Amino acid sequence: MKRQKREWEVKLIEEFPFLKQSEDGEDGTIYQKYGFECAEGWYELLRDCCRKIMDCYSEAGAEIDFVPVQIKEKWGTLRFYYGYADAPCGLAAFDFIGSGVSIRFEPGLKGTLEDEKARLRHNISQIIKEAEAMSSHTCEYCGKEGTLRRDLPWVRTLCDDCYKKASALVENGRKKATWRWLESGLKLYKDELYDLAYHQFKKAEELATTKEGDAGDNGYLGVALGHIFLIAKDYTCAYKYFMQSAETGNIAGIYMVAEMYKTGKGVEKDLKKYKSIIKTLAREVSFHSGDWETEDCGFYPKVDWYIEDKVFLAKICSAYGELLEEEGRLKDAREEYNLAAELMNEYHNLYG
Ligand SMILES: [Zn+2]
Questions:
Q1: Mean pLDDT of 45-50
Q2: How remote is the CA of residue 152 from the centroid of ligand 1, in Å?
Q3: Mean pLDDT, residues 162-177
Q4: CA separation (Å) from 35 to 2, 9, 94, 133, 153?
Q5: Cα 206 to ligand 1 centre (Å)
Q6: What pLDDT does residue 304 have?
Q7: What residues contact 92, with CB distance under 8 A and at least 6 apart?
Q8: CA of 103 to the centre of ligand 1 (A)
Q9: Which residues surround ligand 1, an ion (CB under 5 A)?
């Protein structure tokens, strides 16, 4: 099926007859079938190039026999492959992945041509080379001054603004993918399919980063993977993951580290540390439980999972209640137990 031509393509085709494409998209060169395989930022650059080619023909008083074979972006720069009516060029170039080296076949420059025609074709090959070179510092999206960007999932020549926008899109996609793996892992975890859950969490881990403002990914992941290792009774690894989560400030992660100190799993038993962490967390809970519902979750789904925060808030209240009870502060302890019950109620109401 033929793709809808973009506005800038239509303008170019109208201005330069040799850019005519096949009607049905079935016959002709790759260009004639598929059109321009690049973005509109190179419009002016292509227009300038085509204008110069036209000028060459009118100066030489020759009939236009230039045939575009393929016009595309490859590894961030323009590739303009072409031939002539009497020198068709099916395979215009070899591009080597990695090195970015491109070997070109110059069409129609064989020695038998008369001088005039040879000169014309030599000039055209220069014009094409210039346009391709220009593309390496022209933003493919908007046409502003750009540089080759190699740290996106695709190599592109982009200006600073378009690069920032592209990076944000990539980052957003990465986050969404991370959370999809986490979510599907959690479903499997709840079904006690721990091996499968583990693989989903590891997929999420590959995508997660510790970049600033991104603590959420690693916070939740640490808790998820820590639980898998708890079940596998690999307490050293479980502790490592809970610590990773705790270091991002994730409350569930911090609570699980406290639990490890209490039970002496994966770390030397230390009740003093356990109590101190629980008391600190309890202060956090009174802060967090108030504005929980209004917290901006962005695109993060409210995940129905065992390691959902509210459950941990309840656990913290309950653990703190026990500490207060030990100290003989029965009334305060009862308040904490009540709060824990309330949180669990909210959790069940929300998630069934
Ligand atoms: Zn741009």
A1: 98
A2: 15
A3: 88
A4: 10, 8, 20, 21, 24
A5: 30
A6: 35
A7: 69, 70, 81, 82, 83, 104, 105, 107
A8: 28
A9: 139, 141-142, 144, 159, 162
* 161, 169 Cβ separation under 8 angstroms: no
* Beta-bridge partner residues of 103: 94
Euclidean distance between CA atoms 282 and 328, whole angstroms: 17
Tell which residue, 81, 94, 88, has the closest CA to residue 36. Answer: 81
How many whole angstroms separate alpha carbon 326 and alpha carbon 340? 17
Tokens of 30: 């790759």
pLDDT reported for residue 265: 93
- Taking Cα atoms as reference points, which of 84, 31, 87 lies closest to residue 53? 84
Range with lowest mean pLDDT among 103-112, 134-143, 153-162: 103-112
Alpha carbon of 5 to ligand 1 centroid (Å): 21
Find the helix packing angle between 330-351 and 271-290, rounded to 10°. Answer: 60
Q: What mean pLDDT comes out for the span 62-73?
A: 93
Task: Kindly report the pTM of this predicted structure.
Answer: 0.62
Q: Who wins on pLDDT, 118 or 274?
A: 274
On whether the CB atoms of residues 247 and 217 are closer than 8 A, the answer is: no
Ligand 1: centre distance to CA 147 (Å): 10
